[in-house]
Specification:
- By secondary structure, the chain is mainly α.
- The radius of gyration is 29 Å and the shape is globular.
- The termini are far apart.
Length: about 525
C-alpha cells in the first residue's frame, strides 16, 4: 500500500513539474503570413505570447524573437535592446539556418541604424548579404542592399553607394516585383544626382516613374520617385519639364495622392510663384499628411498669405503650424514595445515570478526526498546565472567604450577643423566635405541637433542649416560666419533675419546674442 502511495505521489509531483516546464511547439506560420502587410496585427498577436517566452522550445523562442523584432521594425517602434535578436541570430547561426540568420542580421542592423551606430549596421548587413545570397528571399536581399547603399550615400561615398544600389536592382529584378525595381532605379538616380550627373539622373528617375506607373502596387515607389525628381528639376530650373511631370500624374487612373507628395508639388509651385496651383495642393497636404507634412504645409501657406498681405489667414496658419509643432514635440518619444530588456535578467525574473509553482512542486517532491537536492541545484543555478549577467554587462560596457573610441577617431578631422575655427586659423570658406564633417560632429556632440533641426523645421535651406550649426557651436560674430560661408558680413545679417522668419521668431531677439541663445536652447 505504501509503495502504491509513493508511486501516486511521484506521479503527482511529475505532473506539477511538467506543468511548470511545459515546452510547446508553436506554429508561427499564420503570424509570418500577415506580417508583411499587417505588422500591427502581427505585433498584437505576438504581444499576447510575450508573458513567458521561455515556455517555448529553443527553436520557437528564436523564431518568436525574430518575428517580434521584425514586427516592431515594420511598425516603426523604437528598439530599446538588441538582446532578443542576438539570441535569435545565435540560434540560427548554430543550426546553420542561413536564410533566417540573414534576416536576423538584417534586423540587428536596423536596430543599430536606429541607434546611429551605422558602422555596426553596415557590418551586419554585409554579413547578411553573404549568408543570404543562396536563398530565394530576394525581397530581403533587396532591402539589405538598399540599406547599405543608403548609408554610403549619406556618407557621400557615392561609388560604394552605386555598387550596392546596382545590387539592389539585381535582387529586385530577381524578385520580379515592379515596386522594388522602381525603387531601385530611383536609388540609382539619387546617386547620379549626388555626382551631378544630371542626364543620367533624369533618365533613371524617368525609368523609375515609367515602371511604377504600370503597377497599382507601386504607388509608393511612384510618389517617392516623383518627389525626388521634381526637386531635382526645380534645382536645375527645368520648370517646364517639372510641370509636365506633375501633369502626367493626373492621367493615371489609380494614382492616389498622399500628403507628402501634395506638399512637394504645392511647395514647388510656391517657389515658382504659381500660387493658384500651390494653394490647393498645400491644403490637400493638410488633409492627407502626417503631423510633419501638416506642419510644413501650414508654414508654406502662411508664407503665401504673408506675401499677399492677408494677415488674418497668415496668422491662422502660423498658429496652426505652432500647434502641429507642439504635437510633434510631444510625440518625439515614441511608444516602445520591449518585452524583456536582457535575456539573463529575464531568466532571473522568470524564476522569481514562478516561485509559487516551484514551491508546490517541491513540496510534493519533498515526500520523495528530492526537495533538498533541487533547492541546492536552483540556488547554485541562480548564482551562476547572476555571474553570467554581470559578465555580459561588463562586456557590453567595454564594447560601448570601444565604440565611443571608434566614433571619436572618425570625428577627429571634424574636431581638428573646429579647433582651427575657434583659434581663428581657418581663413578659407569651408568646403562641402568640411561642412558634412562639421554637421556630423554637431549632431554627435549636441544631442542630435542636426537631426532634430531638420525634423522640427523641414523648410530650412542649406545656408540656414549651416548658420544654425555655427551658432550652436558658439560662432556668433558676423565676420567669422562670413569667412566660413564665403559671404559678406551684411549678407550674414540678412541671413540671420531670414532664419528668424523660418524659426517663427521674427520680430523677437533683436538684441545681440539673443538669437544665439535661442539656438542653444533648441
Amino acid at each position: 500500500m505504501r509503495t502504491s502511495n509513493h508511486i501516486l505521489l511521484g506521479l503527482i509531483w511529475l505532473c506539477v513539474m511538467a506543468a511548470c516546464h511545459r515546452r510547446p511547439t508553436m506554429d508561427f506560420a499564420a503570424i509570418e503570413a500577415i506580417l508583411p502587410t499587417r505588422p500591427d496585427s502581427a505585433l498584437a498577436i505576438l504581444d499576447t505570447l510575450h508573458t513567458d517566452p521561455n515556455d517555448f522550445t529553443a527553436k520557437d523562442r528564436a523564431h518568436y524573437y525574430l518575428l517580434l523584432t521584425e514586427a516592431m521594425d515594420k511598425c516603426y517602434l523604437t528598439h530599446t535592446t538588441d538582446s532578443l535578436i542576438r539570441l535569435s541570430a545565435d540560434y540560427y547561426a548554430a543550426h546553420q539556418d542561413n536564410p533566417r540568420y540573414a534576416k536576423a542580421l538584417y534586423l540587428q542592423g536596423r536596430i543599430y541604424e536606429d541607434w546611429h551606430r551605422n558602422d555596426q549596421a553596415v557590418a551586419c548587413w554585409i554579413k547578411a548579404l553573404d549568408y543570404g545570397k543562396d536563398s530565394e528571399d530576394y525581397f530581403l536581399l533587396f532591402r539589405i542592399a538598399s540599406r547599405i547603399g543608403l548609408r554610403y550615400a549619406y556618407q557621400d561615398d557615392v561609388d560604394q553607394a552605386m555598387i550596392y544600389y546596382a545590387e539592389s536592382l539585381r535582387y529586385a529584378i530577381a524578385a520580379n516585383d515592379t515596386s522594388s525595381i522602381a525603387y531601385a532605379h530611383a536609388y540609382i538616380a539619387r546617386v547620379h544626382s549626388l555626382r551631378k550627373e544630371w542626364p543620367e539622373a533624369e533618365k533613371a528617375y524617368e525609368t523609375a516613374i515609367a515602371l511604377a506607373k504600370t503597377s497599382v502596387d507601386a504607388s509608393d515607389a511612384l510618389q517617392a520617385a516623383l518627389k525626388e525628381f521634381i526637386g531635382i528639376l526645380y534645382r536645375r530650373k527645368a520648370f517646364s519639364k517639372a510641370d509636365s511631370v506633375i501633369q502626367s500624374v493626373q492621367t493615371i487612373p489609380a494614382f492616389q495622392l498622399d500628403g507628402p507628395f501634395c506638399f512637394v508639388v504645392g511647395d514647388y509651385y510656391r517657389h515658382v510663384d504659381d500660387t493658384v496651383r500651390a494653394i490647393p495642393y498645400l491644403k490637400q497636404a493638410l488633409q492627407l499628411g502626417n503631423l510633419y507634412t501638416k506642419h510644413s504645409a501650414c508654414q508654406a501657406l502662411s508664407y503665401i498669405y504673408k506675401e499677399y498681405g492677408m494677415k488674418k489667414e497668415q496668422k491662422a496658419y502660423e498658429r496652426l503650424a505652432g500647434q502641429y509643432a507642439d504635437s510633434i514635440k510631444s510625440q518625439e518619444v515614441r511608444t516602445t514595445f520591449a518585452p524583456i530588456a536582457d535575456y539573463g535578467q529575464e531568466q532571473i525574473a522568470r524564476q522569481s515570478d514562478r516561485k509559487l509553482c516551484w514551491i508546490g512542486g517541491l513540496s510534493v517532491g519533498a515526500l520523495l526526498l528530492v526537495g533538498g537536492l533541487w533547492s541546492w541545484h536552483r540556488r547554485h543555478y541562480l548564482l551562476r546565472l547572476r555571474a553570467q549577467v554581470e559578465r555580459i554587462e561588463i562586456l557590453t560596457r567595454q564594447l560601448r567604450e570601444l565604440e565611443e573610441a571608434n566614433i571619436e577617431q572618425q570625428l577627429k578631422p571634424a574636431t581638428e577643423l573646429l579647433e582651427r575655427m575657434r583659434r581663428h586659423e581657418q581663413e578659407k570658406p569651408l568646403t562641402e566635405s568640411e561642412w558634412n564633417a562639421l554637421f556630423l560632429l554637431v549632431n554627435y556632440r549636441q544631442d542630435d541637433f542636426f537631426t532634430r533641426l531638420h525634423q522640427r523645421y523641414p523648410e530650412l535651406g542649406e545656408a540656414e542649416i549651416e548658420l544654425c550649426c555655427l551658432l550652436r557651436m558658439g560662432f556668433g560674430k558676423n565676420e567669422e560666419i562670413a569667412t566660413f560661408c564665403n559671404i559678406t558680413s551684411s549678407a550674414v545679417t540678412k541671413r540671420k533675419q531670414r532664419l528668424k522668419q523660418h524659426l517663427y521668431v521674427a520680430g523677437k531677439y533683436q538684441k545681440p546674442g539673443e538669437l544665439e541663445a535661442f539656438i542653444q536652447g533648441l
